[in-house]
Amino acid sequence: MKQKTHRLVPVLLMQSVFMGGCAFGNINLDMPPQGDLPDNQGAAGQTLRLVMPFEDSRAIKARCGMKKNSYNMDTADVLCSQPPAQWVADRLQRGLEERGYTVETVRETAGGNGTVIEGDLIRLFVEPVIGFATVSIEADIQVRLEVRTGEGFRAERTFYVKGDTRSAAATRGTFDTAFESAADQISTNMVMAIDELVDRYPELGQHGEKQ
Amino acid sequence: MRIKILTLGTLIVTALALSGCARHVVAEPDQVDRLNDDGWTIHSQDADAPEEP
Which residue of B has its CA nearest to A197? Predict the structure, then answer.
């Protein structure tokens, strides 16, 4: 009988780790700034006006993710460490500057000369997807960008990325790793797409004068 | 007695698993391509801008 009890102890300990305290405490998501991007010679001298911050159209604004226990139950919140619509706009600004663009930030969305970029954060969420033996932390970010000029040009594009990391248990580090992967993908995709648009329509970025 | 405890435990675990499942907020991996635009949608353009390919 005593032997059986001893065998049960590690099982109960494992169970308490997976179902217990670690799944019930809220965590703050690490939201890193934009890293380095390769310089683009063609961007030199081009001026873009970025409306800050982006719109925030997320369906869930109170949190940036959720934690779950091994029964796939929502047990705690993953909180953003800074306003996400501002953070994603900051990353785009830094990414464009890294590529060589001159970026003017503006608050107003109406009228004016120059090439204006507006963004809308549609989704930003991190959650564990519970598998049979492993947990996959998935981080989704969706942003819609609109580029327009005072001369009537208007282009839009929606970006959706997923960062994920797989491990035996969901720890704070795995949430951060998955989110960083998604953050890097979304900013790189947005910057490269703007590069592509400016290459295709060379008049974009040529009217940088302020209102 | 032991069987009763096991049955009760199984019922509790099943009830927890069924009732508490959180709805997925993130997209299924195979939906990502569909949600991600392939290119820019041009709604209007200057008269002298290049035509769409």
Answer: B40
